[in-house]
Amino acid sequence: MKIFVISDIHGSSYFLKKVLEAYKRENANYILILGDELYHGPRNPLPVEYNPKEVAEILNTYKEKIIAVRGNCDSEVDQMLLQYPIMGDYTTLFLDDKRIFATHGHIYGEDNLPDMSQGDIFIYGHTHLPVAYEKNGIYILNPGSISLPKGGNKNSYGLFENGFFYIKDLDGEILKEINLK
Question: Residues 30-73: pLDDT tens digits?
Fold first, then answer.
């Protein structure tokens, strides 16, 4: 199974369309969205082609493939436009023999991990920085941001595939990878 991971769309229809091209190219089974779908937030600049209503319409066409969590910029009003649930602060998934704890990162983060076991995966967004490393037997992952990357990083997404997690730019170039075995 392939799980395509995105975070921090922040209402950019331009970058959402670009990343959905990558989703199709990757032939992934599901899309995991780590929050901040529609609103850009008061600390962020307006992203390219800021159009939250169009973003909601596009995402709704993938509703049966989306697993999502709430970001710090997501609200009940956003949920009214989206046809899949986004209001949970986290979700737990299982991939092969791994438990994945998926969250946005504004409540739980690298310095405030939930209770986890060796071999578990903690994946989050929020910082707009791509991250892939193992610490004390727990994998810490962040796909970066598709619309507003920080720290000089490229617009990026993540992909769980065949026991690896890849962080790729929108053209599919691998920026980081980690073996999850």
Answer: 999 999 999 988 888 899 999 999 999 999 999 999 999 999 99
At 152-178, the pLDDT tens digits run 999 999 999 999 999 999 999 999 999
Total of domains in the chain: 1
The CATH number of residue 161's host domain is 3.60.21.10
Residue 84 CA to residue 65 CA, distance in Å, equals 9
Cα dihedral value 47, 173, 28, 69, nearest 10: -40
**Sole residue written with tokens 């319409």:** 57
pTM reported for the whole predicted model: 0.96
Cross-strand partners of 108: none
49: containing domain: 3-179
